[in-house]
Write a structure and sequence with these properties.
This protein is an all-alpha fold. The chain is elongated. The two termini are about 30 Å apart.
């Protein structure tokens, strides 16, 4: 069950937004009140976008936090599917009896 798309970490989306805004990671971090390294870790794909960060990103960009948690969830599922690929191929769906 592969949609053919590469897993894209939400940090890549954040990096593009900041580039479009011509805003540095440090300036963005100050704007939302978090350490600069937290933003750096997210942009570099080393940390996930947590619910807390999704709320902050949603507020500053006037978006739903769900946008960011959705990006993170999609990324996590794609990575998990890739890591479990061989194992998933050995599992067969349970057949439910119909009445």
């Amino acid at each position: 069950m592969n949609d053919g798309m590469m897993a894209i970490h939400p940090g890549e989306f954040l990096a593009e937004i900041l580039e479009d805004l011509n805003m540095s990671q440090a300036e963005f971090a100050r704007k939302i009140g978090v350490p600069r390294m937290r933003i750096s870790y997210i942009i570099n794909g080393q940390r996930p976008v947590t619910a807390e960060m999704a709320c902050l990103f949603g507020k500053v960009f006037n978006q739903s936090p769900g946008y960011w948690t959705g990006l993170q969830s999609d990324y996590d599922v794609k990575i998990a599917r890739e890591n479990l690929k061989d194992r998933l191929e050995t599992i067969h769906p349970i057949q439910f009896a119909t009445a």
